[in-house]
Model the fold of this input.
Amino acid sequence: MKIEKATLSDLEELNELFDGYRVFYEKESDKQASKAFLKERIEQNESVIFISRNNDGVATGFVQLYPLFSSTRMKRFWLLNDLYVDSNFRGQGFSKALIERSKKLCHETDACGMMLETAKDNHVGNQLYPATGWSLDKDHNFYTWDVE
Done:
């Protein structure tokens, strides 16, 4: 198993995974738009994407993190926005390895931590995250606002 920071040379494989991720979340497949989106994130250095590969070099999954800042802690804070492993490779430790690499990024960037959001009915994720050291925040309400 190998976890590397994704670059433009990974774009084709990453795009296949990203499109699968979006379809998993009930969005229409749009490989052209998703490729442009990923390319822009990488070129503009607006996110950090790690890609996982099996021992044969096949891309198996990815995690995408966006930088935020905590004003009260006066440090960087990462948003783990996307985590996906292709269904053919689930249950083999790729998700845990991608999370561990994300934790390492926090240490490398002197960040104070990470946050993520997942659906209450994401049973796999809601078992995975506590098993990898995450705590469920029961003290705060999170609200969203969408442009219509």
